[in-house]
Design goal:
- One of its GO terms (biological process) is translation.
- InterPro entries: Ribosomal_uS11, Ribosomal_uS11_sf.
- One of its GO terms (molecular function) is structural constituent of ribosome.
- By secondary structure, the chain is an alpha/beta fold.
- It has a single domain, classed as Nucleotidyltransferase, domain 5, CATH 3.30.420.80.
- It is 23% helix and 44% strand.
- The protein contains two helices and seven strands, in the order E-E-E-E-E-H-E-H-E.
- Strands 1, 2, 3, 4, 5, 6 and 7 form a seven-stranded mixed β-sheet that branches.
- It is globular.
């Protein structure tokens, strides 16, 4: 059952359960040099943008997980993107690290989509 509460799209498990699942979308652009993480809600409103180099993207993703929890986002749709075009079409090493760190920061990963 989806509801809109204070501009957030919320799914409640039942009328008697107080747990709310608030969805967000994490856009991850991972080249071999940089990793960008951009978190929005389902309506597309920008909530959080983090840019880190490939060596520290695990720490950046832990920061993103903490900020998502403070914003009230509990579940994420992941959209992974690589450089594309004439460059390589596979995501860089930061994509796997971001995904692992978000999963370990107790975020629910609903689905993972590769954007070409």
């Amino acid at each position: 059952m989806f509801q809109s509460i204070n501009g957030k799209i919320v799914w409640r498990r039942s009328r008697f359960c107080s747990d709310e699942i608030v969805f967000g979308v994490a856009y991850v652009y991972a080249s071999f040099n940089d990793t960008f993480v951009h978190v929005t809600d389902l309506l597309g409103k920008s909530r959080l943008i983090v840019t880190r180099l490939a060596l520290r993207c695990y720490v950046a993703a832990l920061y993103v997980g903490g900020k998502c929890k403070s914003l009230g986002i509990t579940s994420l749709h992941m959209k992974l993107r690589a450089a594309g075009g004439t460059c390589t079409k596979t995501p860089g090493p930061g994509a796997q690290s971001v995904l692992r760190a978000l999963a370990r920061s107790s975020m629910n990963i609903v689905k993972i989509i590769n954007i070409l």
